[in-house]
Give the backbone structure.
Amino acid sequence: MTMPKIMIIEDEKNLRLLYRMDLEKDGHEVVTAGTAEECLARIDDEAPDLVVMDIRMPGMNGIEAMGRIMDRHPNVPVVLNTAYSSYQENFLSWTADAYVVKSSDTGELRSAVGKVLRDRKQRGVPPALAI
Amino acid sequence: MSLASAGEEAVRNTGGPPRSASPSPATLELRVPDLVKLVFQWEQPAVLLDPAGRIASWSRNAARLYGRSRAEGVEVPWPEIVGEVAALAEPPWAGSLRNHFFCTNHEIDSRGLVRMRVSRTDLPVSGGGEGYRLYLITELTEPETLRSRLERRVAELSIIREIAEVLQSAMDLSDILHIILVGATAGQGLSFNRAFLLLADGENNELRGRAAVGPSSPEDASRIWPELSSSGTTLKDLLRSLGPLIRESDRRVNDIAGNLHADLDDADHFLIRAFRSTSTVRVRDGREVASEREVDPALLESLAVRSFVAVPLVDEDRHVGLLLADNAITDKTVEERDVEILELLGMQAAIAIHRSSLTQELQSQAEALEKAYREMRESQRRLLQAERLSTLGQMSASLAHEIRNPLVAMGGFARLLLEGRTEDDRDREPLEIIADEVRRLEGIVGRVLEFSSGDRQRMQWADMSAIAGEAFNLLQWELDKAGIVGLLEADPGAGHVRGDRDRLLQALINLMQNSMHAMPDGGTLSIRIRNGEGWVELDIEDSGTGIQEEVRSGLFEPFTTTRPGGTGLGLPIVSQIIADHGGQISIKSREEQGTTVRLRIPAWQEKEEDDDA
């Protein structure tokens, strides 16, 4: 069995490192991008199994990037990871597979990633977008 | 003194001027000069006429009685002083009895005020000349002298003056009614037994009894009146003792008053005719005195009286009410002079009642103005507070967000380093402390965000045209003051979004206030709302000074301001709010031509059921 590949998009360098170390510990292969634009440029080549996306970033924001990823790779689930709990009420963010509020306790992010990957595996087919 | 002694002598000689009609033989002849002196000195009113009927001499009191100076009367024909009618009132046979003393009684009404008896004596004069005539005048009824009549008149007028004075200081209508009624009935006042006041009520188009004062029966009166008169209070004190309008003893007459009413259009109704009349209507024994018309028996029965006076209350052609007064208890005839003074009271009453209604009107207008002013102040205060809270909230929210990311990194790595360490590792405790303290800080940041508007959106169905309408309402006063015309245009059904109404309102108000600042000399501020494809578009357009080229690029940067005292947070907050709604903001501006801010917010047609709660 191959390791699931996670792509993390996060503009804060320190947080990129934290998430990488945490998720690698859980047995994932991790690649990172600092902006939404970088993510979109590399996603075809990287072909991740899951994307962890920050929302507020310089340039394109995470919600718009998520929309574009879904257009091109409808099978790739997206977990939104943000400091703003307010986006939870933005209906555009409902299209994400999970929504996590940033915390020093990365347990929530790690369990969300694990759960989304398990759901995909069990169903074996990409689910219809949950709106 | 020689004159006086001559007079005394003459009196002695004649045995005194005759006071009664007892003739005595004329045996003594008098000289004219003596007679003139005698009359001149006489204490009582006395007049001596020469044979031509002109005044030869008159006493001081006679001249005063007729309101003349003594010198003025000499040689004036007597009828000129007393009037033709009085002069002719003498018995026709009097002149035929020359050289005889005799007396005749007749009454002279001098200026309608004084009744007197005049004894006439034709005097034989020495030298056989034509007869001189002596009038000796006695006042018939002592209290009815001119002086006492004048005194009474003065007393009546001073009563009216006292009532008028108290009335002038009264503002409240019920106080005014009380003063009028007490004035009409008090022993120190006009002394009527009972009085009723009816007022015109334009709203209900009727004349209605409002209040009354008076005892309900002779027994009642015999109990109350002695009590009132022995209390020794002055009229003024009595008028000013504004107790409850309806005292227990006045309850029955007030019940009667409460039942007195008539439609103002019922021109045939006695009360309405009296109310519309310009003069007092007297009713004696159930009939109007002037017209002999019978008064409605039902009215007489309810008033429980058959004779009374009705004084219309008229102030400068304005009929305000009707004052009824009677002597139902004592049955004393209402005399002409009672009516006269009641009419004077009626004039004062009409002025006071009319004034009170004007005062009341003015007062309610002042209150309405005061209320509008308070509401305006209140809405300004709310606006200011909302603005402050929002700014504060936005600032603390962005600060908290800035802190949150570094905290996540710090605490995250501490936790990472902790993993896999054994219980006795000496680095374990310091790392745990770092992780716990970071968690505590994250809690604080979370609570700040919860309380700041930035993180507490209540997304629900919202109508932008209603929100824009509310914004115009809140700013109406300031727009008016600045001479700015507000326009709100919305396509039918346009403007439905999903959003936080309070924050959207805040965004519009911020933009409108920017526009207002750009129009210091007035102008037009319009908001147009229409539906695009999947979007609601709002154009906020002003005719102001526009935005200078050099500041345009930094408009959305916090703390960029062109106004002294501005926070520079207005547009950044708007832009944040619109971004949080998934919307866009763009600005078009031309210097000296105005600015248009366009907001685009995703349209949302669904109206959820419990949204409006």
